[in-house]
Amino acid sequence: MLAADASPEEAGAVARDPWISAQPAGARFAVRSSGVDEDSAGHSFAGIHETQLNVRIEHLAGAVASCLRSAASPQAEAYRAQRGLAPDRARIAVLVQRMVPAVASGVAFTVNPLTGADEIVINATRGLGDAFVNGQVDPDELVIRKRDGRVVSTRIGANSEAGDALLSLTPSQIDELAGLLRRIERHDSRPQDVEWCHDGQQFWIVQSRPVTTVSDGHGAASPARADIEWTRANVAEVLPDQVSPQALAEFEALLNRAQRQFMGRLLAPESELGPMTKSFYGRLYFNLSQLRRLCVMGGAAPADLLRSFGHTGEIQPEDEVAKRPPLRELLRCILDFVRIGINDLRMADRMRLHEARTLDALAHASADPRPLPDAQIWQGMEWWRQAGPEHIQIIFTVGGVMFRESAIRKACVAAGFPYEQLVYPQLGAGVRSVSTQQAVDLVALAGVARCEPAAARYLSANDGAFSGFRLALAGTTFLGELDRFLALYGHRGRYESDWALPRLHEEPAPLLFAIRGHLEGPPPNLHAVVERQARDAADAWRAFEARLTWLQRWTLLPRVRANLRRLKQQYVWREQVRSDLTRVVSAMRRWHLTLAGRFVDRGWLSARDDYFLLRLDEIGAIIADPSRAGELRPIAERRAAERAAQRPLRMPMLMRESELPMLVRQPPGAQSNADAIALTGQCVSPGSVEADVVVMRDPGEFATMKRGAILVAPATDPSWTPLFTLASGVIVEVGGMLSHASTIAREYGIPALANVRNATTVLKTGDRVVLDASGGRVLRETPRPEEKSAVVALQR
After folding, report:
1. Over the stretch 428-472, which tens digit does the pLDDT of each residue have?
2. CA distance 471 to 477
3. Which of 157, 178, 451, 582 has the smallest number of Cβ neighbours within 10 A?
């Protein structure tokens, strides 16, 4: 250590210090600055003063001089001025250390600096940590619960390469480092920010300083990014509560790359507003702060987007007002606006390109992976990973309905006509989406079974498991028609976006159950439904025209007609794109299952499903170097433990990041008795029906569904389609106009209400309710006895 009051002669003679002279020939050194006012409880000069690594002994004097000069650098002076530190305190001591040949290195915090939670956060990278500290490398991140040492989340850095893609630390090294960090914190009696490295044999603690900025759990002192709003709306509908770690990591990276590629500078830099998607405790979230920015940049009211997304919070009055972006920001994004506008104008061409790409991807994935070596299977999967961002650009193009809906909404306001009364009938009538056609074809398949006694007897008498159905139905017309149905729709299934879960062609029991339900009563008159929808659409259009002035009929009417036509087409295309991409995912699932079976046969994993606990980069690393296969079991075991620890968490649908520790610790909120009798939500398919409800939390509970019942669920996606054909109405806790289930309900002609808070806890299977979707409410006909007495007590 060279003291702060050392003379220039002492600084120049540092290389002749006896300790340095005693080091082996060729030794390298780290030269670090240490200000006398640095790293106090209130100030951390991390990154402000000079540090030089891998310094040869002959260059020590120059490195020391650079560190001394950094006390007067512009960034150091600005930092002191910002914190009111006197300029005369700008004195520097210099620490010279022997360089450790780091195999892995990084920083760690003994308290979560973002949320204030009592957790250890470790950031790690292979080799030296200087690139990571300088922000040039995205590190691995581990979060460890301090009270019991359990790893609650892990993330491999985005800069990992296929051959070097496992975590930088082994499970035993993670435990050892966590123990060291707890000892350091106890020694200093306060949270620490620690720099560390590992030389392949042991850990070295390079530096430890107090953590100077920690959130109080409410975002009070946390970094600006801690106050980002996150939402699960529009994602909780298509992904299970806990996505497989493999699919979760891929979706997070894929969506961030694709969104940034599509939106360009319309999105704020990640350093300001964070990424577009991020996972918390195994659940994927969309960045609502970035989405609000998109509204501002496009001159749209945030409320329009929030309604389409199925926003679970209150829509504030200020959300109804479109804001103008700063002119400078607008000019920066002009090329992005032009590019997105061209995509919109050429949407039909983009769809044709998408269809060609889908055929190409299916041709690629249709090869039988079983004869292929591991490396060739991996190349096939890697091809799809790299092509993914380009393939899903079409989702953003056809899904960009917000500005078109906003234009129609403004026209309705100008005409004094309710938006929903005009738009919903138009979206329900006409050409069906592929998801709704699946429901119609399922009803037709039930008609085949109805006309074939052998098939009808088997389906009606079955216990619902339908094991051995192929043998029992061999030779029937119905089995041939079922196979044709599965050829069209068998790629779909329960939470079909997660390829860890089986498809309908693997487990067709939900289809057979729905068909059995149709056999219990007369066939539905779908022709009458189509006629009613066409009549309702025509009536709504005439009523809208009647409200227009003669001038509006010449100016407003053509624009509304064109926008409605395009809006309907976009919703139909959106369902097609979803189905096409799911077909590719289903085909690639065969490749994953082939590898999973091999890993189990070789003893690398205990069970086939353990494969989906691994991230694809981890799999690629093992295929590149099979000698590391022994690392797979510990990874799978650790990740299974993480999922088990995260499973009971009640993750919020809407949050600020700084609020997360408090929210996940909250007990379930008690519902008011008034809410137990009347529930409200957002109409996504108009109509009214009175019936018993069936509450289902997962489409895997299909055997509880009853024909003619109102389906009540947390959220639904196309995997619930077989149950929609049995339902007389739908109530969901999550969803909006953009929900796939909303499209199916409108086109199939059943009333649906979304964003009905706590519907699955307030309503019980067997409750008789009136679902008034057009009025946005659910009324239970007869309150339960305990609710009657509670309401009387409240009224008193």
Report:
1. 999 999 988 999 999 999 999 999 999 999 998 887 788 889 999
2. 13
3. 451
